[in-house]
Amino acid sequence: MPVLALLCAVLVVGFEQLVEWKYGAVGLVGLLLLSVGIKAKSPAVSSAGALLLALLLAGPAL
Q: Helices marked H in 1-62 — which ranges?
């Protein structure tokens, strides 16, 4: 079990670093809002995080 927990932690941290590298601090805030909203069972917070990430993924509308 400790090996599985360590592996999950490494994957989560790696994913967070990837999001921050590709989308900057705003992407990290969106990911944080999404994960906090899911853990707190708050649809408003998780929706705000998902919307922020979706806007970043969509890119600039030209």
A: 2-39, 43-58
